[in-house]
């Protein structure tokens, strides 16, 4: 019985795609953590609206980390799973005690856009490797993050 992975994607491409997905995983988890913190700490006249919106967003992000990590594993690599590993590769800025609701919205918008760009940057490699499953995952992630970014941007509009 062979444990070799023979899914039509060569090992070098699988490793490179998995590395890219691990970066996406780190960003997604980091944004999850930040969004959850903002959910707990938001104050002001928009409290109820933002508290509920942030809950919806962090719940979706929590589900996404599992999907991304499982794709990394399906490609035969180890999914990152520690704060220190995520901190080394994430493009998401940590929550540094933000208390202003508009600043929270702006930082979450920026985080959504980091993830969109990270996911989009993986397409050339994924397409070259004929990795349709990862392409589908990326398409779904981009679509969701673009919608969330639009909603956050709309809340910031004056």
From TrEMBL:
Gene Ontology molecular function, alphabetical: DNA binding; ferric iron binding; oxidoreductase activity, acting on metal ions
UniProt keyword annotation of DNA-binding present: yes
A Pfam family annotated for this UniProt entry: Ferritin
InterPro entries given in the database record: DPS_DNA-bd, DPS_DNA-bd_CS, Ferritin-like, Ferritin-like_SF, Ferritin_DPS_dom
Gene3D superfamilies cross-referenced by the UniProt entry: 1.20.1260.10
Keyword terms: DNA-binding
Domain Ferritin/DPS: 19-158
Source superkingdom: Bacteria
PROSITE patterns per UniProt: DPS_1 (PS00818), DPS_2 (PS00819)
Family, similarity comment: Belongs to the Dps family.
Name used for this protein in its record: Starvation-inducible DNA-binding protein
Organism: Shewanella fodinae
């Amino acid at each position: 019985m062979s444990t070799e992975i023979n899914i039509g994607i060569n090992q070098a491409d699988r490793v490179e795609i998995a590395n890219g997905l691990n970066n996406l995983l780190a960003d997604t988890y980091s944004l999850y953590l930040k969004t959850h913190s903002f959910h707990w700490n938001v104050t002001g006249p928009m409290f109820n609206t933002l508290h509920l919106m942030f809950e919806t967003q962090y719940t979706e992000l929590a589900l996404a980390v599992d999907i991304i990590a499982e794709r990394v594993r399906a490609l035969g690599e180890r999914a990152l799973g520690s704060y220190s590993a995520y901190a080394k590769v994430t493009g998401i800025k940590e929550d540094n005690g933000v208390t202003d609701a508009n600043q929270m919205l702006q930082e979450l918008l920026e985080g959504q856009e980091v993830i969109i760009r990270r996911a989009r940057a993986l397409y050339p490699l994924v397409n070259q490797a004929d990795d349709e499953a990862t392409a589908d995952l990326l398409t779904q992630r981009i679509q969701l993050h673009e919608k969330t970014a639009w909603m956050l941007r709309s809340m910031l509009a004056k």
